[in-house]
């Protein structure tokens, strides 16, 4: 899935965020031109993107000599940088749009798929999203917030949430956070004040035993902070989802973790057990992380059935049906974002291909040794 | 632990330094269904425990009973240790549980952001 | 070396080993409050202050207390103990607020105060059950039916409960013999509930013999729940529940079928009273409940009150026999579930919910603070107010120890916060009763001052000879042993708790 392209910049002095269109009568900010340039019509656009190699023919800010617009649909929202780089921020035809709030993080998880960067990017992202959010279609069903750790935006985290709440009141907002910041009651209380019912926080918990959790996230005191954060959130009626990545470190105490969740965190609205993505830090730490999904099927099924028996809402993400015990198929979801979802050649023969979530593109290089087409019975 | 047995009576001499009075009372309380129990202070740190068989007493042999008593004394001593060591924390849990005003405590640990985010700098509202 | 993490801990993003994240290098730890009890020769149970438990090899408690556990020799157990709040590496655990919140949650059945209001709407009955505690065979309505003045006063007091949801339960005698009284009371309560913004649930306890079509229509219109009695197959039921010149069993079964048709199966329940005769037929009784399509049954021991204790030959059995009966019946019930037929035993379910869930369970006979006054109050047919259903039965034996006042004379405050209530409250908490304070099952059990008083002469009771203690200790031990021995049974127990098959 292509999410960026590049051309030659002309007269662009600051990054521009806008909706793209090929129709010069449409309500949009950025006009895409592949053929003739309709000189009089371009005045109402703030920027022009073109495949043509025509440097000084237009005095508008523009990017020219772009390889193509095949990856863009009418109404998609892009960020045009002064360098001529064009990033797709929002795709109207996708249900997997997300806003990356920052690449900073105060944890450093062994299996992080998007390793953090130690530089302050918060004002860059803040400025971008301040422009983006008002342009997102009001009928957008769901929008993710991810990072890094979004709460590190501090003040601006709240400003962006308020912007989302006022611009997209009907949109489900799903924010991935390690929850540690919410251990500070004043921050959680402030989030509570927003009474933002469409907001759900997805918070990872990797073990019931602090040392193991702290090891996985590579931060001392993280477990206690996350648990305190979860309690503060619950007190403020803020919706939470718990997220568990399945790997060699989390599997041995998975049944105990399930029990810990039901006993101590029964307010969690959703609990997801997620297969390992072969991305970011994971290849580097693979010896510490890899366990074949087939080898954890019993323990996973025990944990899932336990929680489900007690009425908790449970899902399995990033799993393939052929490596998942049948008694928990009902919990497996097709969860992988369209732009990074693949199937193997073997899968083409499979009778349950349509029900299967497939693999991350990155897992083409590392996946269960037992992936095998399931034949019609 | 010294003991001697008469026809219907078991006498135990127990060192109070080993099992304090509270432990003795808690332990022998459970023998008061089948025995008439007396706990007397002897000379020094010793206690004399007398178990007098009543008609409800089962037909367990005295030796068997002594074994059971030894085991129970250890268990009640262990319970006593827990109770002593955890009294403060138990009171704290109950006090916090039913506190009229909830005291919201700020973590003492670090948020550990390398770029320097500090939760304290975020305003309350 | 093991100092608090610094802001620049992640500056290098270099991965650290597992050991780095431990907070203690000397393996010292602090105990948190917990209790222990032997389950059998091999296993013991550890229960913490909030009722979470671990089943471990015998001798583990000793190892923990003597500081012989460390994360190297016992990595899994050590993690279990820390994660489940049995030990802590700090003198005050960093998650003490979690413990406190969970403790409060467990006790939150108290939050709303009295919910169950029992109206003994009439003492008259057409049955002459040999274990019956109070009833009279008579047609003297004026003497044995609750007066309208007392009903009004009872409703007024019920509406003063701080609880926004109250249950109005009609008992007898045979409540349906005073159906006119029930209609009067329900209509009055409905009016009052609107004025006072309360919701009221209605329950009628009845043997169903006097059931008519007219009654069924009224139950349906008012969402009234039916609680009836079924002691097992006809040869047991009819022997227990003597109804002159007729077949009590047939009345009960026909009534149950009719009520289910009209009201829905979920609105009809049956209670079992265990008599000496029943003790010999645990399997037959379970079969009977299954045959009649019940999804639950309640194996109750006979209560030591009223006529029940007088009729010693028929009903005085030792706890041991009841326990054997209980275990056999439970085994049969579990077998039905293993075979794919859902049926739940309610007493076990109440205890299991306390053991296995983080939620509060307010069951009047098994809670601390005790259920009397805090959760239930009884308005007797003659207008006298009692602390529990059992208290009014004592009163029939001329013992008025648990009489709290009289309808129409005493105020709400006098009844609920009066001298008598205060005296009783001394024995409300099993946390502070001798024998209970160190008991591993404390958080699953309760205090029952009325039972103590009736059987042992004082409200505090004597645990070593208490049948309440013997019965509950053994049932709890047995349930834990069952779960520990077979995961399939634990899974069945989960379905009993949630009712989800």
TrEMBL record, chain A:
Coiled coil: none annotated. InterPro entries: Aldolase_TIM, Radical_SAM_PqqE_MftC-like, rSAM, rSAM_paired_HxsC, rSAM_sf. CDD domains: Radical_SAM. PROSITE patterns: RADICAL_SAM (PS51918). It comes from the Bacteria. Its cofactor is [4Fe-4S] cluster. Residues 91-309 form the Radical SAM core domain. The keyword Amino-acid biosynthesis does not apply. Keywords: Iron, Iron-sulfur, Metal-binding, S-adenosyl-L-methionine. One of its GO terms (molecular function) is metal ion binding. This is His-Xaa-Ser system radical SAM maturase HxsC. It comes from Chitinophaga rupis.
TrEMBL record, chain B:
It comes from the Bacteria. InterPro entries: HxsD. NCBIfam families: chp_LLNDYxLRE (TIGR03976). This is His-Xaa-Ser system protein HxsD.
TrEMBL record, chain C:
Residues 110-337 form the Radical SAM core domain. It comes from Chitinophaga rupis. This is His-Xaa-Ser system radical SAM maturase HxsB. The keyword Acyltransferase does not apply. InterPro entries: Aldolase_TIM, rSAM, rSAM_paired_HxsB, rSAM_sf, Sulphatase_maturase_rSAM. PROSITE patterns: RADICAL_SAM. Keywords: Iron, Iron-sulfur, Metal-binding, S-adenosyl-L-methionine. Pfam families: Radical_SAM (PF04055). GO terms for molecular function: iron-sulfur cluster binding; metal ion binding; oxidoreductase activity. Its cofactor is [4Fe-4S] cluster. It comes from the Bacteria.
């Amino acid at each position: 899935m292509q999410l960026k392209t590049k051309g030659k910049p002309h007269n662009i002095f600051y990054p521009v965020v806008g909706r793209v269109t090929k129709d010069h009568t449409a309500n949009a900010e950025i006009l895409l031109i592949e053929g003739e340039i309709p000189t009089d019509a371009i005045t109402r656009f703030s920027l022009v993107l073109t495949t043509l190699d025509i440097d000084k023919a237009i005095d508008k800010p523009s990017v020219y000599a772009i390889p193509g617009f095949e990856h863009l649909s009418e109404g998609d929202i892009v960020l045009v940088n002064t360098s001529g780089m064009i990033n797709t921020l929002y795709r109207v035809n996708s249900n997997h749009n997300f806003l990356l709030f920052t690449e900073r993080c105060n944890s450093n998880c062994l299996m992080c798929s998007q390793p953090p960067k130690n530089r302050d990017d918060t004002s860059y992202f803040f400025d971008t999203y301040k422009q983006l959010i008002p342009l997102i279609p009001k009928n957008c069903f769901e929008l993710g917030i991810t990072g890094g750790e979004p709460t590190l935006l501090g003040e601006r985290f709240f400003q962006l949430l308020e912007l989302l709440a006022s611009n997209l009141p009907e949109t489900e907002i799903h924010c991935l956070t390690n929850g540690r910041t919410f251990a500070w009651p004043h921050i959680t209380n402030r989030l509570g004040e927003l009474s933002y019912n469409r907001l759900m926080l997805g918070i990872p918990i990797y073990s019931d035993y602090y040392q193991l959790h702290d090891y996985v996230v590579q931060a001392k005191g993280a477990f206690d902070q996350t648990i305190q954060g979860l309690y503060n959130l619950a007190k403020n009626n803020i919706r939470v989802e718990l997220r568990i990545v399945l790997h060699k470190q989390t599997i041995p105490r998975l049944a105990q973790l399930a029990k810990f969740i039901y006993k101590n965190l029964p307010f969690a609205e959703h609990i997801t057990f997620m297969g390992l993505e072969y991305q970011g830090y994971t290849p580097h730490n693979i010896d510490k992380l890899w366990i074949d999904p087939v080898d954890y099927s019993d323990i996973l099924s025990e944990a899932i059935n336990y929680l489900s028996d007690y009425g908790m809402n449970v899902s399995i993400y990033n799993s393939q049906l052929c490596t998942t015990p049948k008694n928990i198929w009902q919990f497996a979801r097709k969860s992988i974002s369209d732009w990074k979802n693949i199937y193997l050649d073997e899968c083409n023969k499979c009778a349950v291909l349509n029900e299967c979530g497939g693999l991350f593109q990155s897992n083409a290089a590392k996946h269960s040794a037992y992936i095998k087409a399931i034949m019609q019975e | 632990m010294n003991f001697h047995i008469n026809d219907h009576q078991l006498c135990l001499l127990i060192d109070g330094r080993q099992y304090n009075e509270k432990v003795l009372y808690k332990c022998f309380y459970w023998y008061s269904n089948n025995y008439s129990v007396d706990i007397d202070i002897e000379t020094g740190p010793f206690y004399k425990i007398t178990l007098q068989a009543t008609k409800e007493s089962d037909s367990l042999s005295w030796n068997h009973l002594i074994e059971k008593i030894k085991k129970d004394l250890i268990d009640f001593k262990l319970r006593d240790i827990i109770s002593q060591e955890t009294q403060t924390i138990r009171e704290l849990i109950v006090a916090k549980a039913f506190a009229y005003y909830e005291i919201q405590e700020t973590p003492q640990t670090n948020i550990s952001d390398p770029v320097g985010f500090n939760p304290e700098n975020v305003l309350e509202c | 070396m093991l100092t608090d993490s610094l802001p620049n801990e992640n500056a290098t993003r270099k991965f650290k080993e597992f050991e780095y994240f431990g907070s203690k290098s000397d393996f010292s730890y602090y105990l948190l409050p917990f209790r222990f009890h032997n389950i059998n020769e091999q296993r013991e149970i550890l229960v913490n202050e909030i009722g979470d438990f671990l089943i471990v090899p015998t001798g583990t408690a000793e190892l923990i207390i003597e500081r012989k556990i460390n994360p190297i020799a016992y990595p899994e157990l050590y993690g279990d103990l820390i994660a489940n709040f049995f030990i802590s590496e700090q003198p005050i655990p960093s998650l003490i607020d979690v413990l406190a919140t969970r403790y409060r949650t467990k006790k939150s059945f108290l939050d709303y105060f009295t919910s169950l209001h029992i109206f003994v709407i009439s003492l008259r009955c057409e049955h002459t059950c040999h274990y019956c505690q109070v009833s009279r065979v008579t047609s003297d309505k004026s003497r044995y039916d609750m007066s309208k003045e007392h009903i009004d006063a009872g409703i007024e007091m019920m509406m003063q409960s701080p609880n926004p949801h109250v249950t109005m339960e009609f008992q007898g005698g045979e409540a349906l013999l005073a159906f006119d009284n029930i209609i009067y009371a329900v209509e009055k309560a409905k009016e009052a509930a609107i004025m006072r913004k309360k919701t009221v649930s209605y329950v009628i306890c009845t043997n169903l013999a006097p059931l008519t079509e007219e009654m069924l229509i009224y139950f349906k219109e008012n969402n009234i729940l039916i609680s009836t009695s079924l002691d097992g197959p006809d040869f047991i039921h009819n022997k227990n529940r003597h109804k002159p010149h007729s077949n009590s069993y047939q009345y009960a079964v026909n009534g149950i079928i009719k009520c289910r048709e009209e009201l829905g199966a979920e609105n009809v329940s049956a209670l079992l009273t265990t008599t000496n005769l029943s003790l010999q037929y645990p399997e037959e009784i379970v079969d009977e409940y299954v045959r009649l399509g019940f999804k639950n049954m309640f194996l109750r021991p006979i209560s030591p009150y009223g006529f029940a204790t007088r009729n010693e030959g028929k009903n005085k059995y030792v706890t041991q026999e009841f326990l054997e009966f209980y275990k056999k019946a439970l085994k049969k019930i579990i077998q039905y579930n293993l075979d794919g037929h859902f049926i739940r035993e309610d007493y076990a379910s109440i205890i299991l919910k306390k053991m296995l869930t983080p939620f509060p369970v307010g069951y009047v006979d098994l809670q601390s603070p005790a259920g009397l006054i805090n959760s239930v109050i009884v308005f007797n047919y003659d207008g006298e107010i009692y602390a529990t259903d059992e208290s009014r039965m004592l009163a029939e034996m001329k013992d008025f120890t648990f009489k709290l006042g009289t309808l129409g004379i005493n105020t709400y405050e006098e009844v609920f916060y009066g001298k008598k209530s205060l005296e009783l409250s001394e024995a409300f908490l099993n946390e502070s009763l001798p024998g209970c304070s160190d008991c591993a099952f404390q958080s699953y059990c309760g205090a029952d001052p009325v039972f103590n008083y009736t059987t042992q002469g004082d409200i505090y009771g004597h645990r070593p000879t208490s049948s309440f203690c013997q019965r509950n200790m053994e049932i709890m031990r047995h349930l834990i042993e069952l779960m520990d021995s077979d995961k399939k049974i634990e899974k069945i127990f989960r379905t009993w708790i949630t009712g989800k098959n």
